[in-house]
Specification:
homodimer, alpha/beta, Rossmann fold, 5-stranded parallel β-sheet, 13% strand, transferase (chains A, B)
Chain lengths: 192, 192
Protein backbone atom coordinates (compact mmCIF):
# COMPACT_ATOMS: atom_id res chain seq x y z
CA UNK A 1 0.00 0.00 0.00
CA UNK A 2 1.36 3.39 -1.01
CA UNK A 3 1.52 6.13 1.59
CA UNK A 4 -1.48 8.40 1.84
CA UNK A 5 -0.53 11.99 0.99
CA UNK A 6 -2.60 15.17 0.79
CA UNK A 7 -1.38 17.55 -1.91
CA UNK A 8 -2.63 21.11 -1.74
CA UNK A 9 -2.46 23.39 -4.75
CA UNK A 10 -3.64 26.90 -4.06
CA UNK A 11 -4.11 30.39 -5.36
CA UNK A 12 -1.73 32.89 -3.81
CA UNK A 13 -3.33 34.41 -0.70
CA UNK A 14 -6.11 31.83 -0.42
CA UNK A 15 -4.80 30.39 2.85
CA UNK A 16 -3.93 27.02 1.30
CA UNK A 17 -0.71 26.83 3.27
CA UNK A 18 -2.49 27.59 6.56
CA UNK A 19 -5.12 24.96 5.74
CA UNK A 20 -2.38 22.43 4.95
CA UNK A 21 -0.65 23.07 8.27
CA UNK A 22 -3.86 22.84 10.28
CA UNK A 23 -4.92 19.63 8.54
CA UNK A 24 -1.50 18.07 9.17
CA UNK A 25 -1.60 19.16 12.81
CA UNK A 26 -5.04 17.61 13.33
CA UNK A 27 -3.89 14.38 11.65
CA UNK A 28 -0.56 14.28 13.46
CA UNK A 29 1.45 14.05 10.22
CA UNK A 30 4.12 16.39 8.79
CA UNK A 31 3.32 19.28 6.45
CA UNK A 32 6.01 20.13 3.91
CA UNK A 33 6.30 23.63 2.59
CA UNK A 34 9.18 25.85 3.72
CA UNK A 35 10.84 22.70 5.09
CA UNK A 36 10.69 21.32 1.59
CA UNK A 37 12.22 24.46 0.15
CA UNK A 38 15.11 24.23 2.61
CA UNK A 39 15.64 20.58 1.77
CA UNK A 40 15.82 21.41 -1.92
CA UNK A 41 18.09 24.34 -1.29
CA UNK A 42 20.60 22.02 0.35
CA UNK A 43 20.50 19.65 -2.59
CA UNK A 44 20.61 22.11 -5.45
CA UNK A 45 22.99 24.72 -4.12
CA UNK A 46 20.56 27.40 -5.33
CA UNK A 47 19.75 30.25 -2.93
CA UNK A 48 16.56 29.77 -0.89
CA UNK A 49 14.81 32.80 -2.40
CA UNK A 50 15.50 31.60 -5.91
CA UNK A 51 14.16 28.12 -5.13
CA UNK A 52 11.05 29.57 -3.54
CA UNK A 53 10.29 31.70 -6.60
CA UNK A 54 11.50 29.58 -9.53
CA UNK A 55 10.15 26.30 -8.16
CA UNK A 56 6.60 27.45 -8.62
CA UNK A 57 6.39 30.51 -10.85
CA UNK A 58 7.17 31.14 -14.48
CA UNK A 59 9.62 34.04 -14.88
CA UNK A 60 8.01 37.43 -15.50
CA UNK A 61 8.99 40.46 -17.60
CA UNK A 62 12.04 40.26 -19.81
CA UNK A 63 12.63 36.57 -19.09
CA UNK A 64 9.04 35.51 -19.66
CA UNK A 65 9.96 33.42 -22.69
CA UNK A 66 12.64 31.51 -20.75
CA UNK A 67 10.36 28.53 -20.11
CA UNK A 68 9.93 27.79 -23.78
CA UNK A 69 13.55 28.34 -24.79
CA UNK A 70 15.61 25.19 -24.73
CA UNK A 71 18.17 26.06 -27.39
CA UNK A 72 21.01 25.92 -24.91
CA UNK A 73 20.01 22.73 -23.09
CA UNK A 74 18.22 22.44 -19.74
CA UNK A 75 17.66 25.72 -17.91
CA UNK A 76 18.12 26.33 -14.20
CA UNK A 77 14.34 25.83 -13.90
CA UNK A 78 14.67 22.39 -15.47
CA UNK A 79 17.40 21.36 -13.08
CA UNK A 80 15.39 22.68 -10.15
CA UNK A 81 12.33 20.80 -11.43
CA UNK A 82 14.21 17.51 -11.49
CA UNK A 83 15.48 18.09 -7.91
CA UNK A 84 11.98 19.05 -6.80
CA UNK A 85 10.72 15.85 -8.37
CA UNK A 86 13.19 13.73 -6.40
CA UNK A 87 12.66 15.52 -3.08
CA UNK A 88 8.86 15.29 -3.25
CA UNK A 89 8.96 11.63 -4.25
CA UNK A 90 11.32 10.89 -1.33
CA UNK A 91 9.09 12.75 1.15
CA UNK A 92 6.03 10.80 0.04
CA UNK A 93 7.94 7.53 0.38
CA UNK A 94 8.96 8.41 3.94
CA UNK A 95 5.39 8.39 5.25
CA UNK A 96 1.94 10.01 5.19
CA UNK A 97 2.13 13.80 4.92
CA UNK A 98 0.65 17.02 3.56
CA UNK A 99 2.56 18.73 0.73
CA UNK A 100 1.62 22.30 -0.19
CA UNK A 101 2.20 23.51 -3.74
CA UNK A 102 5.15 22.75 -6.01
CA UNK A 103 3.16 20.53 -8.41
CA UNK A 104 3.24 17.66 -5.89
CA UNK A 105 -0.14 16.46 -7.20
CA UNK A 106 1.40 15.85 -10.61
CA UNK A 107 4.70 14.48 -9.34
CA UNK A 108 3.02 11.92 -7.08
CA UNK A 109 0.24 10.83 -9.37
CA UNK A 110 1.52 7.26 -9.70
CA UNK A 111 3.71 7.21 -6.61
CA UNK A 112 1.37 7.77 -3.68
CA UNK A 113 -2.26 7.41 -2.70
CA UNK A 114 -2.99 11.13 -3.01
CA UNK A 115 -5.93 13.25 -2.02
CA UNK A 116 -5.57 16.12 -4.49
CA UNK A 117 -6.88 19.42 -3.14
CA UNK A 118 -7.14 22.89 -4.68
CA UNK A 119 -7.85 25.99 -2.55
CA UNK A 120 -8.99 29.26 -4.08
CA UNK A 121 -10.78 32.44 -3.04
CA UNK A 122 -12.01 35.64 -4.62
CA UNK A 123 -9.77 38.64 -5.17
CA UNK A 124 -11.12 40.63 -2.20
CA UNK A 125 -10.45 37.88 0.35
CA UNK A 126 -6.97 37.21 -1.01
CA UNK A 127 -6.01 40.90 -1.30
CA UNK A 128 -6.87 41.48 2.37
CA UNK A 129 -5.00 38.36 3.41
CA UNK A 130 -1.75 39.11 1.56
CA UNK A 131 -1.59 42.66 2.93
CA UNK A 132 -2.11 41.29 6.45
CA UNK A 133 0.36 38.44 5.94
CA UNK A 134 3.08 39.98 3.77
CA UNK A 135 2.54 43.74 4.22
CA UNK A 136 2.05 46.53 1.65
CA UNK A 137 4.16 46.78 -1.53
CA UNK A 138 4.47 49.34 -4.33
CA UNK A 139 2.26 47.17 -6.51
CA UNK A 140 -1.41 47.03 -5.44
CA UNK A 141 -2.44 43.70 -3.84
CA UNK A 142 -4.74 43.01 -6.82
CA UNK A 143 -1.89 43.45 -9.29
CA UNK A 144 0.39 41.25 -7.18
CA UNK A 145 -2.27 38.53 -7.14
CA UNK A 146 -2.92 38.69 -10.89
CA UNK A 147 0.78 38.46 -11.63
CA UNK A 148 1.31 35.53 -9.21
CA UNK A 149 -1.76 33.66 -10.51
CA UNK A 150 -0.68 34.05 -14.11
CA UNK A 151 2.86 32.87 -13.49
CA UNK A 152 1.85 29.98 -11.25
CA UNK A 153 -0.60 28.74 -13.90
CA UNK A 154 2.03 29.08 -16.63
CA UNK A 155 4.59 27.14 -14.58
CA UNK A 156 2.11 24.39 -13.84
CA UNK A 157 1.04 24.12 -17.47
CA UNK A 158 4.62 23.99 -18.72
CA UNK A 159 5.87 21.27 -16.40
CA UNK A 160 2.72 19.22 -15.92
CA UNK A 161 0.51 19.76 -18.96
CA UNK A 162 -2.40 20.01 -16.50
CA UNK A 163 -4.83 22.90 -16.40
CA UNK A 164 -4.25 24.60 -13.08
CA UNK A 165 -7.51 25.31 -11.24
CA UNK A 166 -9.57 23.00 -13.43
CA UNK A 167 -11.91 21.03 -11.12
CA UNK A 168 -11.32 17.77 -13.00
CA UNK A 169 -7.67 17.71 -11.87
CA UNK A 170 -8.54 17.52 -8.18
CA UNK A 171 -10.52 15.28 -5.86
CA UNK A 172 -11.83 18.33 -4.05
CA UNK A 173 -11.60 22.09 -4.55
CA UNK A 174 -12.67 24.57 -1.89
CA UNK A 175 -13.39 28.30 -1.85
CA UNK A 176 -11.67 29.28 1.39
CA UNK A 177 -13.09 32.81 1.18
CA UNK A 178 -16.71 31.65 1.13
CA UNK A 179 -16.34 28.60 3.39
CA UNK A 180 -13.70 29.92 5.80
CA UNK A 181 -10.28 28.47 6.58
CA UNK A 182 -11.46 26.35 9.54
CA UNK A 183 -14.41 24.87 7.64
CA UNK A 184 -11.99 23.79 4.90
CA UNK A 185 -9.89 22.03 7.53
CA UNK A 186 -13.01 20.33 8.94
CA UNK A 187 -13.94 19.05 5.47
CA UNK A 188 -10.47 17.71 4.64
CA UNK A 189 -9.50 15.95 7.88
CA UNK A 190 -12.10 13.13 7.63
CA UNK A 191 -11.10 12.48 3.98
CA UNK A 192 -7.61 11.33 4.96
CA UNK B 1 -32.13 37.03 4.58
CA UNK B 2 -32.28 35.27 1.22
CA UNK B 3 -33.17 31.61 1.09
CA UNK B 4 -30.30 29.16 1.28
CA UNK B 5 -30.08 27.09 -1.91
CA UNK B 6 -27.64 24.38 -3.00
CA UNK B 7 -27.00 24.41 -6.75
CA UNK B 8 -25.37 21.33 -8.23
CA UNK B 9 -23.68 21.44 -11.62
CA UNK B 10 -22.37 18.10 -12.76
CA UNK B 11 -20.74 16.12 -15.50
CA UNK B 12 -23.10 13.67 -17.17
CA UNK B 13 -22.92 10.32 -15.38
CA UNK B 14 -21.10 11.64 -12.30
CA UNK B 15 -24.02 10.99 -9.96
CA UNK B 16 -24.65 14.69 -9.30
CA UNK B 17 -28.40 14.20 -9.46
CA UNK B 18 -28.28 11.29 -6.98
CA UNK B 19 -26.09 13.35 -4.66
CA UNK B 20 -28.53 16.27 -4.90
CA UNK B 21 -31.47 14.06 -4.01
CA UNK B 22 -29.70 12.43 -1.07
CA UNK B 23 -28.52 15.79 0.30
CA UNK B 24 -32.04 17.22 0.02
CA UNK B 25 -33.50 14.14 1.71
CA UNK B 26 -31.05 14.40 4.61
CA UNK B 27 -31.80 18.12 4.99
CA UNK B 28 -35.56 17.69 4.60
CA UNK B 29 -35.78 20.20 1.76
CA UNK B 30 -37.00 19.75 -1.84
CA UNK B 31 -34.70 18.79 -4.71
CA UNK B 32 -35.66 20.18 -8.11
CA UNK B 33 -34.67 18.34 -11.24
CA UNK B 34 -37.30 16.46 -13.23
CA UNK B 35 -39.94 18.36 -11.20
CA UNK B 36 -38.38 21.54 -12.50
CA UNK B 37 -38.48 20.30 -16.07
CA UNK B 38 -42.17 19.46 -15.73
CA UNK B 39 -42.90 22.87 -14.29
CA UNK B 40 -41.17 24.52 -17.22
CA UNK B 41 -42.91 22.28 -19.69
CA UNK B 42 -46.26 23.51 -18.41
CA UNK B 43 -45.23 27.12 -18.78
CA UNK B 44 -43.55 26.97 -22.17
CA UNK B 45 -45.76 24.55 -24.02
CA UNK B 46 -42.62 22.80 -25.27
CA UNK B 47 -42.56 19.00 -25.11
CA UNK B 48 -40.85 17.53 -22.01
CA UNK B 49 -38.10 15.83 -24.02
CA UNK B 50 -37.24 19.02 -25.84
CA UNK B 51 -37.06 20.98 -22.58
CA UNK B 52 -34.86 18.34 -21.01
CA UNK B 53 -32.41 18.43 -23.90
CA UNK B 54 -32.42 22.05 -25.04
CA UNK B 55 -32.47 23.53 -21.53
CA UNK B 56 -28.99 22.29 -20.84
CA UNK B 57 -27.23 21.23 -24.05
CA UNK B 58 -26.08 23.12 -27.12
CA UNK B 59 -27.52 21.56 -30.27
CA UNK B 60 -25.27 19.00 -31.97
CA UNK B 61 -24.61 18.08 -35.62
CA UNK B 62 -26.28 20.10 -38.34
CA UNK B 63 -27.74 22.64 -35.92
CA UNK B 64 -24.55 23.16 -33.96
CA UNK B 65 -24.28 26.78 -35.04
CA UNK B 66 -27.81 27.57 -33.85
CA UNK B 67 -26.64 29.09 -30.56
CA UNK B 68 -24.64 31.78 -32.28
CA UNK B 69 -27.19 32.64 -34.97
CA UNK B 70 -29.56 35.40 -33.98
CA UNK B 71 -30.39 36.78 -37.44
CA UNK B 72 -34.04 35.94 -37.09
CA UNK B 73 -34.57 37.12 -33.49
CA UNK B 74 -34.68 34.99 -30.35
CA UNK B 75 -34.47 31.25 -30.90
CA UNK B 76 -36.51 28.59 -29.13
CA UNK B 77 -33.49 28.13 -26.86
CA UNK B 78 -33.62 31.81 -25.89
CA UNK B 79 -37.30 31.61 -25.04
CA UNK B 80 -36.71 28.46 -23.03
CA UNK B 81 -33.78 30.15 -21.25
CA UNK B 82 -35.96 33.06 -20.17
CA UNK B 83 -38.63 30.66 -18.83
CA UNK B 84 -35.95 28.61 -17.08
CA UNK B 85 -34.67 31.82 -15.51
CA UNK B 86 -38.12 32.69 -14.13
CA UNK B 87 -38.92 29.18 -12.86
CA UNK B 88 -35.59 28.80 -11.05
CA UNK B 89 -35.86 32.26 -9.49
CA UNK B 90 -39.40 31.47 -8.28
CA UNK B 91 -38.33 28.11 -6.81
CA UNK B 92 -35.49 29.76 -4.88
CA UNK B 93 -37.88 32.40 -3.56
CA UNK B 94 -40.29 29.74 -2.32
CA UNK B 95 -37.84 28.30 0.21
CA UNK B 96 -34.54 26.49 0.83
CA UNK B 97 -33.92 23.76 -1.78
CA UNK B 98 -31.43 21.84 -3.90
CA UNK B 99 -31.44 22.58 -7.65
CA UNK B 100 -29.57 20.23 -9.97
CA UNK B 101 -28.16 21.56 -13.25
CA UNK B 102 -29.79 24.06 -15.60
CA UNK B 103 -27.31 26.88 -14.84
CA UNK B 104 -29.07 27.58 -11.53
CA UNK B 105 -25.74 28.71 -10.03
CA UNK B 106 -25.56 31.52 -12.55
CA UNK B 107 -29.26 32.41 -12.46
CA UNK B 108 -29.34 32.70 -8.66
CA UNK B 109 -26.03 34.44 -8.15
CA UNK B 110 -27.62 37.62 -6.77
CA UNK B 111 -30.98 36.17 -5.79
CA UNK B 112 -30.24 33.54 -3.18
CA UNK B 113 -27.65 32.55 -0.62
CA UNK B 114 -26.21 29.75 -2.76
CA UNK B 115 -23.77 26.98 -2.04
CA UNK B 116 -22.41 26.35 -5.53
CA UNK B 117 -21.32 22.74 -6.07
CA UNK B 118 -19.76 20.96 -9.05
CA UNK B 119 -19.61 17.15 -9.25
CA UNK B 120 -17.32 15.35 -11.69
CA UNK B 121 -15.71 11.93 -12.12
CA UNK B 122 -13.35 10.22 -14.51
CA UNK B 123 -14.51 8.63 -17.76
CA UNK B 124 -14.40 5.03 -16.45
CA UNK B 125 -16.66 5.73 -13.46
CA UNK B 126 -19.14 7.69 -15.56
CA UNK B 127 -19.18 5.19 -18.44
CA UNK B 128 -20.07 2.36 -16.06
CA UNK B 129 -22.73 4.46 -14.38
CA UNK B 130 -24.52 5.57 -17.55
CA UNK B 131 -24.68 2.05 -18.93
CA UNK B 132 -26.14 0.86 -15.60
CA UNK B 133 -28.53 3.81 -15.35
CA UNK B 134 -29.59 4.41 -18.97
CA UNK B 135 -28.68 1.13 -20.73
CA UNK B 136 -26.54 0.47 -23.82
CA UNK B 137 -26.82 2.59 -26.99
CA UNK B 138 -25.34 2.38 -30.49
CA UNK B 139 -22.76 4.99 -29.49
CA UNK B 140 -20.12 3.80 -26.99
CA UNK B 141 -20.58 5.23 -23.46
CA UNK B 142 -17.30 7.16 -23.84
CA UNK B 143 -18.53 8.83 -27.04
CA UNK B 144 -21.87 9.65 -25.42
CA UNK B 145 -20.07 11.25 -22.47
CA UNK B 146 -17.72 13.29 -24.65
CA UNK B 147 -20.62 14.57 -26.73
CA UNK B 148 -22.72 15.46 -23.65
CA UNK B 149 -19.78 17.16 -21.89
CA UNK B 150 -18.95 19.23 -24.93
CA UNK B 151 -22.52 20.39 -25.49
CA UNK B 152 -23.20 21.08 -21.81
CA UNK B 153 -20.03 23.22 -21.59
CA UNK B 154 -20.96 25.09 -24.78
CA UNK B 155 -24.48 25.80 -23.49
CA UNK B 156 -23.16 27.04 -20.17
CA UNK B 157 -20.57 29.27 -21.83
CA UNK B 158 -23.09 30.78 -24.22
CA UNK B 159 -25.74 31.69 -21.67
CA UNK B 160 -23.61 32.43 -18.62
CA UNK B 161 -20.17 33.47 -19.84
CA UNK B 162 -18.78 31.24 -17.07
CA UNK B 163 -16.23 28.52 -17.61
CA UNK B 164 -18.00 25.27 -16.79
CA UNK B 165 -15.94 23.03 -14.52
CA UNK B 166 -13.52 25.78 -13.53
CA UNK B 167 -12.93 25.50 -9.75
CA UNK B 168 -13.13 29.25 -9.22
CA UNK B 169 -16.83 29.26 -10.20
CA UNK B 170 -17.85 26.99 -7.32
CA UNK B 171 -17.63 26.96 -3.55
CA UNK B 172 -16.81 23.27 -3.65
CA UNK B 173 -16.13 20.71 -6.37
CA UNK B 174 -16.02 16.97 -5.70
CA UNK B 175 -14.75 13.94 -7.61
CA UNK B 176 -17.60 11.51 -6.96
CA UNK B 177 -15.65 8.67 -8.58
CA UNK B 178 -12.70 8.96 -6.19
CA UNK B 179 -14.63 10.00 -3.08
CA UNK B 180 -17.81 7.97 -3.60
CA UNK B 181 -21.41 9.22 -3.83
CA UNK B 182 -22.16 8.83 -0.10
CA UNK B 183 -18.98 10.60 1.00
CA UNK B 184 -19.94 13.55 -1.23
CA UNK B 185 -23.33 13.66 0.53
CA UNK B 186 -21.61 13.57 3.94
CA UNK B 187 -19.39 16.50 2.95
CA UNK B 188 -22.23 18.66 1.61
CA UNK B 189 -24.91 18.22 4.27
CA UNK B 190 -23.03 20.09 7.07
CA UNK B 191 -22.28 22.98 4.68
CA UNK B 192 -25.96 23.91 4.35
Amino acid sequence: MKNRVITISREFGSGGRTIGRKVAERLGIPCYDSELIQEMEKQTGFAADYVKEAGEYAPGGFFSSALSTRMFGPTNEDILWSHQYKVITALAEKGPCVIVGRCADYILQDKADCLKVFIHADMKFRAERIVKEYGERDQSPEERLKDKDKRRAAYHRFYTDMKWGHAQNYHITLDSGALGIDKCVDILVPLF
